[in-house]
Every structure is written in structure tokens, then in C-alpha cells.
Fold:
Amino acid sequence: MATHGGWRVDTRSDAEWCRYVFAAPDNRIADLAATIGRPDVLLKLCAADAVLAALLPAGWQLDPCSWFMTAPEISVRTALPTGYTATIQTTEGAHQIAITAPDGSLAASGYAAEINGVFCYDRIVTSADHRRRGLGTAVMALLGAQRALDTSRHALVATDQGRALYETLGWRMLAPYATAFLPAASCRPSDI
Structure:
């Protein structure tokens, strides 16, 4: 939902309650930050860490810088190793892929959503015990197959390690991507 000059995304995951995403610096980020009292509400900005830090009141901390990336088209395989299965769930336009290992454990997962000609991948994770089997690639391919428009541009946010990997696959970096949060110790007990 559009708000405060950016977008609010309710993820309701174990790591975060929601995130506010901004394409450019805006003074409304400072106004919004002053109203937040929960440690699991994140502020994200397509800019360097210092730019976001300058907009925030005291008490906010920054995650390590990430990178906003894009690819014109993705051509990857969707085949899974023997014994692995994938389930796809779509809720209110958001797609979730879960790949289950032969033993029933979650081996890999990811999310994506499409809006205004952009198909954005999010939280692509492969469990340590299942890496180097092509599961991350399969997650990306299965999510990409959910695009409503073949012309939608692929986008994601990557860590430094992820950036190096995605660049070998043809992705390119568009901008640094800063994330800020309130540490739990600085929040009011009623907000946690």
C-alpha cells in the first residue's frame, strides 16, 4: 500500500512485521520513523547507508548495505533434483515457492510480487544442508514463471555475496539499498 511517499509491505514473517520501501530520499521518512516503536518494522531506501541514516531520529541502526539489482530476462532451468518437490502458493498477488527435501524438511524458498511492470523477487533462501544443488536457481525460475506480463522487469535486493553471484548470472546493480531498524533494547516494552 502506498504511504509516506513509499510503499508499506506487510510481510508478517519471523524476521519482520512489515517494511516501508522508498525509491528516493524523502523527509517523510523521518516523520514515519518517529512514529515507529517496534524492532520488527524496517525502513528501506534505494540509496547509500549514509543517506538513510541522515533522515532517521536517534536510536535507529543500519543493516549492512545491500544492492538493488535488475535483469532484462532470466533464462534458467526449473528441474529439481530427484526427490525434491515444489509447492507454489499465491495470495493477494504475492507468490511463495517452497521446495521440500526428500526427508520432508524445507530445502529452499522464496517470494515474488509483480506491480507496474516490475517482478520483484524477495527472501530467496536455500538451507545450508541443501546448497549447491541448483535449488536457488529453481526457486527463481519457478517464481519467474508466475509473471503475469512477459515484459515485466526482474528486480531483487542482494547482499554483497548475493550480488557477486547474481552478476555472474547477468544481473546488474542499479543502486545501493539501505535498511534501518530499531534495536529491541531501544523499544518500549508495550511495542514488542
